[in-house]
């Protein structure tokens, strides 16, 4: 019998036959792992986004296995009346599901996910939560091998007056370097360089579209993956406000 004990975050829950649920979670030391749990008559806190400690066991490593779950924090319960934060949570979970493969260990991504969930629960300044989410997406790209360096100009190596991003390389350039080509470049919101800078709605939208472009370019289009619906809905939700 193979057994795994680990900390994780629930990614999805779906019914299986009459008495079971299939729970998929992203674990700290074992990547994405799935297992069966019995349907309980107690209050169901097996909700995507919940932080858990679990015990998984199966006869073989590649079997579905059975799960016993201890809920450490039901994130959804903390934000149940906040539609903005729910949309951020849904997008977060959907991006993890599409970016990481089963059993692919990524401790850095898990750490950033855990930090983001804490911010979603505790920070009441919505634009700060959006900023944290966008930073999470950028780091997720980095941890999956597609680094975006916006700390220095790719041409001059200067860290001052960075204003644009090249759609070809994903690197930043200064206002002076990019002036002649500004119609062909993306604008770089200042809060992506300095997290202490406040962001308005337009900054948030620009940043989401910027990071989203590189997900599309590097990950989704080459692998014939559709952009997660929850991420698309997040954009629409912000636009409608």
From TrEMBL:
<dbReference type="InterPro" id="IPR037278">
    <property type="entry name" value="ARFGAP/RecO"/>
</dbReference>
<dbReference type="GO" id="GO:0043590">
    <property type="term" value="C:bacterial nucleoid"/>
</dbReference>
<dbReference type="InterPro" id="IPR003717">
    <property type="entry name" value="RecO"/>
</dbReference>
<dbReference type="GO" id="GO:0006302">
    <property type="term" value="P:double-strand break repair"/>
</dbReference>
<keyword id="KW-0227">DNA damage</keyword>
<dbReference type="InterPro" id="IPR012340">
    <property type="entry name" value="NA-bd_OB-fold"/>
</dbReference>
<keyword id="KW-0233">DNA recombination</keyword>
<dbReference type="Pfam" id="PF02565">
    <property type="entry name" value="RecO_C"/>
</dbReference>
<feature type="domain" description="DNA replication/recombination mediator RecO N-terminal">
    <location>
        <begin position="1"/>
        <end position="72"/>
    </location>
</feature>
<dbReference type="InterPro" id="IPR022572">
    <property type="entry name" value="DNA_rep/recomb_RecO_N"/>
</dbReference>
<protein>
    <recommendedName>
        <fullName>DNA repair protein RecO</fullName>
    </recommendedName>
</protein>
<dbReference type="GO" id="GO:0006310">
    <property type="term" value="P:DNA recombination"/>
</dbReference>
<dbReference type="Pfam" id="PF11967">
    <property type="entry name" value="RecO_N"/>
</dbReference>
<comment type="similarity">
    <text>Belongs to the RecO family.</text>
</comment>
<keyword id="KW-0234">DNA repair</keyword>
<dbReference type="InterPro" id="IPR042242">
    <property type="entry name" value="RecO_C"/>
</dbReference>
């Amino acid at each position: 019998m193979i057994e795994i004990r680990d900390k994780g975050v629930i990614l999805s829950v779906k019914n299986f036959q009459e008495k079971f649920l299939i729970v998929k979670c992203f674990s700290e030391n074992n990547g994405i792992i799935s297992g069966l749990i019995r349907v309980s008559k107690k209050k169901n806190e097996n909700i995507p986004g919940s932080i858990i400690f679990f015990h998984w066991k199966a006869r073989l490593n590649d079997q579905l296995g059975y799960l016993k779950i201890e809920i450490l924090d039901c994130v959804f319960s903390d934000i149940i009346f906040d539609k903005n934060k729910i949309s951020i949570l849904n997008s977060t979970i959907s991006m993890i599901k599409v970016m990481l493969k089963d059993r692919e260990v990524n401790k850095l991504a898990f750490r950033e996910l855990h930090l983001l969930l804490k911010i979603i629960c505790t920070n009441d300044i919505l634009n700060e939560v959006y900023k944290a989410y966008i930073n999470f997406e950028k780091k997720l790209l980095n941890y999956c091998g597609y680094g975006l360096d916006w700390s220095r100009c790719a041409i001059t190596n200067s860290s001052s007056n960075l204003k644009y991003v090249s759609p070809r390389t994903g690197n930043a350039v200064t206002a002076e370097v990019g002036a002649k080509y500004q119609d062909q470049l993306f604008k770089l919101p200042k809060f992506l360089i300095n997290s202490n800078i406040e962001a308005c709605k337009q900054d948030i939208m620009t940043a989401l579209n910027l990071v989203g472009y590189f997900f599309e370019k590097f990950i989704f289009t080459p692998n014939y993956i559709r952009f997660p619906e929850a991420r698309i809905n997040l954009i629409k939700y912000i636009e409608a406000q």
